[in-house]
Structure formats: C-alpha cells, structure tokens
Amino acid sequence: MENSAGLRTWLDKMNLDHPLVIAGPCSAETEEQVLKIAHELKDSDVNYYRAGIWKPRTRPGNFEGVGAIGLEWLKKVKEETGLKTATEVANRAHVELALENDVDLLWIGARSTVSPFIIQEIADALEGTDKIVLVKNPVNPDLSLWLGGVERLYSKNIKNLGVIHRGFSTYEKSKYRNNPEWQLAIELQNKFPDLPLILDPSHITGNREMIFDVSQTALDLNYDGLMIETHNNPDKAWSDAAQQVTPESLKQIMRDLKIRKETDEEADYNNKLTNCRAQIDVIDNSLVEMLGKRMKVSDEIGKLKKSRNVAVLQSKRWNEILGKMIMDGEEKGLSEEFILRIFKAIHQESINHQEKVVKG
C-alpha cells in the first residue's frame, strides 16, 4: 500500500489518552440486553459499542444472530448513550443495511478475510465510504492474505482502515482458542506502522481469565487498541459465553493495564525497550512450546526403540542433525559454538526422555 501514512489519521483525530476500546456483547440477543450493556459501558473508556448482528458459526444449528432488527437496537444505543456503534459485515447486503442504519465502524471477520471473493464484494459495496473498516486476520496464518484484504479495500478509496488480530486456528490443542502467532502480527506492524492494529483477546483466549494478560502483551507490543466482548451476564450468553467479561470487569481491566506512551526522549527509550522485551517474551514462549512438542516426539521414538530393543543413543543420526543445524545456524547469523551448546542440551534432554520410556 503506497502512501499509507494516512491510514492512521482517523485514530489520530480521536486524540485518545488510552488505547482505542471496542466493547459489547458477542451477539445482540434482545433489545433489553443490548441497551443494558451499553448504559453500563457509557461512562468508561469504551469508544465503540460492538454487537454481532449476523453470526457466522462453524456448524449449523447454533444461534446465528438476530439479523437486521439488531441494527435498530444499535441506533437506540447511539441515541441513548452517545456511544458510536460497530458490527461485523460478511456480504454486500450486510454492508448496505449497516450503512443505512449509520453504523460507525464495520469489521470483516476471519472467515470472510480468508476469501478474496468475499472481500472484493464487501470492498465494492463500501467504495468511497468514510466509515472505519477493520479487517480481522484470516483463520489461517497467512500474512499475504490478510494484507490482500486490506489492499482490496484501500484500492476502493476506503481510507479509514485498520486491522484486528484475533488469532489463528490450529489443529493442535493449546491454552488458546486461537493461537496468537504474535510474530505474524509483529511483522505486519513492522511493514505497515501506519496501519492501526487492534487486538481481539476474546477470540484469542476463549477464556475471560486470560483477557488481561494477553491485552497487556498487546499494549507492550504497541498495539493501538482492544476489542473485548462484554456481556451483563456472560455465563448466560447465547454465544461464546466463556470469553466474555462483565462491564465492571472490563473497567477494572482498563484500570489495571499499564499503558506506555511516548512523551519525551527517556519515555521513548523505555517504550521501545519494553516493546523489544515483549517481542522476546513472545519468542521465548514459542521456543518453550516447540521444545515441549519436540520432547513428546522423543517419547514416541523411545516407545519405538523399546519395542525393537534398540539402543537409545544413535550417534550417526545425532551427527547428521548437528551438522545440518550448524549450517542452518550460520545462515541465520548464529555461531557454531552457540548451536553446539543449544543442541547438545536439547539432545541430552531427548535422551533423558527416551531412557525414561525404555526403562518403563
């Protein structure tokens, strides 16, 4: 995206003293529920009130949203509380209805971002709009696909753009509902620093107890805002109950978050240092997770060796691995001495795991 510096203009104009906050229920359920939550959030850091009107679900048979009637409820939210409104759009019809009802911010969901056909249809329907449009990352970790969606919108003269990081689907189970894959978002941020970046900790964690920690990581990485699903009675929510917080919990989260701003030279230094350390923390966590997975594979190898009465130490295989890792390390600027120390330690831990299995 050439000349993309203007993408941050809409956020700069808001002149906020805190991160941008988009909050509200996963789904609009009833008019009473929508208005009650909005009134509880109006005197808070919330800038946009979100509610899902059309809910794309993985499998049929689940609650799929109240439909267009929910847009009338959002209009009442704006009239009664003054909060600006936001909702997800997934096709041309959604866009037209949302614009007719003066929704202030539209976001495109992960299931839509994954399809260039859907993105193009939405971009055509939004051509020239001055509404804010945010693009969630696609369900799979593909940076080009994510940026492709933004570029399709940008080419239609939609200048008030931003992106939402909501994590990525994975077959392997982890503590997250959708793995953050922080490095991918960091790469996007480094390539396009003028593209506002919002975190959706609700969909990343799938667990309200993890919302704060993930949000703090995002702020340490210089994210511009948060989209947090908020419900007056989360346990009774019609969709995604486990990941929604109460309005009071949201207010407490915002009070507890450490927000670092660049105010002078020293603050700028500290902010950049914190950002670098946050990136290292993300990478370190990934390293530990990958090492854990490696040792699980070692356990399986131990079982195979035990079944065939094969010795745990296989020197030829070890030397092959070491030689390859030394060569790969050199390409990444890592010294031979460092690679030797690291992989000798990994190899020893792998032997320990296999010996435990072999010895029963």
TrEMBL record:
GO biological process: chorismate metabolic process
InterPro entries linked to this entry: Aldolase_TIM, Chorismate_II_sf, Class-I_DAHP_synthase, CM_dom_sf, CM_II_prokaryot, DAHP1/KDSA
EC number: 5.4.99.5
Domain Chorismate mutase: 267-358
UniProt entry tagged with the keyword Hydrolase: no
Record carries keyword Transferase: yes
GO molecular function, one term: chorismate mutase activity
The name this protein goes by in its record: chorismate mutase
